[in-house]
Fold each of these.
Amino acid sequence: MNKKNNQEEKNLMNRWVFDHAYAMIEEFNMNRSEAFRRAHLARELVEALGQGIVVFEYEKKDGTLRLARGTLCKGISEKYDAYEYKTDSHEKDKYSKLDIPYWDLDKEAFRNFSVVNVKRIVEVVIKSKNQNSPDLIEFV
């Protein structure tokens, strides 16, 4: 059963990469190789955000680079854990399919980045079951 769930999860993530890569090709007339490279990087970032704290860099809409510290993992930020999503306040059509929300640990609020603008993952701290010894993964 666990093997089947892993395969389903892998298929979903592959589909996510394809969907986002083809959206970049269509929306930005990006070459296929670059679109898939960026989609894979964004997928790694989204997976890491769900596992702990991630330091990553992306280009903001004004062209400046932002070094962000974020998460989508419960148990990292009390404000994130206490956040209540209100469907009536969300402007669904405001964001592109390529925009990814994350909880910004410095701003203590949701922010978003575009898959096309992710530059690099700097560091990932995976939330460990043993809170005294989180696992640190460094990227360059």
Amino acid sequence: MARIKLEHVGIMVKDMETSVRFYEEVIGLTCKETLDHTNGVIKLAFLGFGRQGETELELIQGYHDGLPQEGKVHHVAFTVDDIEEEFKRIQGLSHVRLIDQEITTLPNGSRYFFFHGPDGEWIELFQSTR
């Protein structure tokens, strides 16, 4: 069996519209498709940057109302080309809560910081030197 790419990362959310709007406005993703699961309970949304073959973000509403810790993704990381510009931009958004109060630089020179999404999920913006 060949492994080709990371297909998508699923994050459980409480309110699909709020979360789609957040990822569009704050991250710059575009909602590619929304659909109702065949079980009639779960709603799904797939978001991306519009590039062929990209890894997508899947938002899932209705799986568990309480969003249990064991089911939530710890974080999702997005590559950026100017970490300082992004840090200033996120700092200026009153509805976004930073986790890190400064940018962290790894020994290899890559830099990152974390902030919360609308349901407490961790989002990382990452500028790589690789």
Amino acid sequence: MNKKTIILFGFIILKFVLQYILVSSQYDLQRDEYLHLDQANHLAWGYLSVPPVTSWFSYLIFLLGNSVFWVRFFPALFGALTLVIVWKTIETLKGNLYTLILGATCIVFSSLLRINMLYQPNSFDVLCWTAFYYIIILYITTEDKKWLYIGAIVFGFGFLNKYNILFLLIGLLPALLLSEQRKILAEKKLYFALITGLILIMPNLLWQYNNQFPIVHHMKELAETQLVNVDRIGFLKEQLLFFIGSVLVILASLYALLLYKPFEKYKFFFSTLIFTLIVFLYFKAKAYYAIGLYPIYIAFGSVFLSEILKVGWKRYLQPVFILIPLLFFVPMYNLSFPNKSPEYIVEHPEKYKKLGMLRWEDGKDHDLPQDFADMLGWKELARKTDSVYALISNKKQTIVLCDNYGQAGAINYYTKKGIKAVSFNADYVNWFNLNIQYKNLIRIKTFEKNSNEFKETSPYFKTSSIVGEINNKYAREYKTTIFVFTEAKVNINQRIEQEIKEEKDYSK
């Protein structure tokens, strides 16, 4: 094993260690993670929320025991693989050992630590963006046609993971057309590769067609409830924060792509970045959607800087460029990760607020960052639901109905009673088991000041009671209430079927 390989393994180990220590044990998993993990129990070629790849990893996690260790492992693995691809890109661009260390440091000590903290499609998305760009570089360098097919497969898996990768193509095509590399578009095997990619994603497209393209409804809902609050100037500011310790390296890459002769055949990567950012801005996308753009530019920038820092007094700047990401990591460590108690954050909100971290998707400031608040209260909810469920005599005819996917997913993940909670929210609307004639209802209701849940529902049951609520005041689910209704006087299944129909009609 040579020196380079040993150093690479060192960075990989560091990456995994950091991902495990950056989350305090005071926090549970995050809201979205529970939904993704529950998809392992409902394998399909598509979901209302995401394409199918995440469910495949969820099923693997399930086979491995479904522990938090494995939930954390896979996003960390995708982050480590992103690091490896940047390393290999630098080697392809003829970078030396200093270049490799600089590039690896910039990748490890970046916002990827936060992205790779959660089990969501984002980590694999960044990996696919980076891998696809790397394959383009390999094709241009070697002109080996096999990379066209490999690129199509990578894009296909990226598409089956998150449709966000379409922005990559939208930004790349005009850049290619305006460059000398447009000759790629005249290559016959490119179109055979495209057919390969189309075959790979076809099952998901058919699923979308058979389900009346729920992605359209999902994007419309996203635009109305979340993207409407996106500020385009804020989007650009956040781009600087994602790789703040590597900004000089990324800027160096843009300069090099325009003026550095060894990078002449990769010049279109400059306009690719510009076009892709313009598209994101036009659609008012969330800032983190663009994170997959940057790792490959760190590779270009690292190689260029290593060349200009070789001689004279500039050699003394080499350690400076490695230290900058480390220095910026210190405030990141103190602010960007749930490694501080909720009480500490509430008592020291100034820096969090200054960075906009207390601003949620509703456009308002709250006590904790939204992701942190979404990692609290879930075990409490599952424990209390279990306790209630244990007291019901006819468990087989009891349905646990939640307001949102986080509640349902968390109960299903932590339950010790074999509960299969459902909701009319997100993918759960397709996961009701109506082969059972339900008689009892455990209702998990998000807190509302003027809620009439008890008054409206209790007349349809012989017994009704409020049995508990979430007491963690820092949780987004604070005061979520647990109701129990037993011995129904009406046909619950008919009402559920009607609600499902109305929800699906709305989705259309």
Amino acid sequence: MNRLFILVLVVSLSSCQKNDKKEAKTEVEACATDSTKGKKFEMYEMSEMAALMEQMYVDNQRLKERIKNGDTIGKFPNHFLKIHKAVMTDESDNDAFFKEQAAKFIKAQELIYEDPKNAKEHFNNGIDACIACHKQKCGGPIPKIKKLYIK
């Protein structure tokens, strides 16, 4: 009796899920059709700077873990130096303030590798430079960046 009940329950749930997926797909298709009438769909493409910052974030997540665990730090990632030349979404943001904060960030990052005894301090100084810049330029990623701090 219990086996029969479980079998009926499983079959019922799986058929509901299939119907839900069909209905959801239909709703999405209808929504896309209605909202895109006469409009060409365009994919967002990151600027070089945005892509570089995303990569630096990932690299710093890994570096943070190595510092916290007392692991070997490795070598300075030279692609970070592209921060001085990468094309921005809005080129007017590449001003003296940005250049100053970028230089502070790079110096702090380089010091992590040159002075691993104080890696945590240098790492957090680099994060400070990121946040200072983002407070003036683009505040959106600040909560994400703050998660990089080593406490």
